Amino acid sequence: MRRSPGFTLLELLxxxxxxxxxxxxxxxxxxxxxxxxxxAVSLGxxxxxxAVAAVYQNDWDGMMPYITDPGVTETIIRFDDxxxxxxxxxxxxxxxxxDALGPIYYTGYHDGAFSSPFEERLRIGTHxxxxxxxxxxxxxxxxxxxxxxxxxxxxxxxxxxxYPSQKAAFIDATPFPLDLDALDRNRRSLARFAYxxxxxxxxxxxxxxxxxxxxxxxxxxxxxxxxxxxGLHTINGIRGVDRP
Length: 244
Hints:
Layout lengths: L8 H51 L15 E3 L8 E3 L4 H13 L22 E3 L37 E5 L17 E6 L4 E5 L40
Antiparallel strand pairs: 1-2, 3-4, 4-5, 5-6
């Protein structure tokens, strides 16, 4: 009697079991490869932002990107693609910088470098945030020399950095909670920075020095009332460090 060419139930069950085991073994490896690819893309985007900051400095006598005016209540950015204007208070440059620089230094408002591979949906202008510590004088980020008011809200120049390879200019904000001032941040997560020397790197969040305790210091011009995201409110500003 000839055997049927099909599988027996036992053989089918064994095959399914083997496939399940292989999938269980391969999925973590594939997940690791996917995260490594995302990491590479994010760091590449950060390097591009650092390069743009260097070009900007060359265009503007060494000044770091500076898009909001401390002398007015709001700085208005107008778009040429039909969107309504964006109204930015002074410290809102942390996310609004891409709207101002996109048409000039990138391919436009929706340049791919503005989106992090770690988050699918772009909630605001960019996932990469510009450090608030670079739009005020370094004295503003020192508890002994900060003055109330706007007298220290002034641009800084790249050459003022004491440690360019340790001072963050741009931050990939996607690994952190949406609550900007959360004090219980995930200390095991990675912080991804573009530094003033043009490099980009990932370091453990637990290694990042804490930011200025009261953040921007003016609730009428910002939403940051605490240290916030790593690298955003560096102690001593451009003269400080965001990694050991």
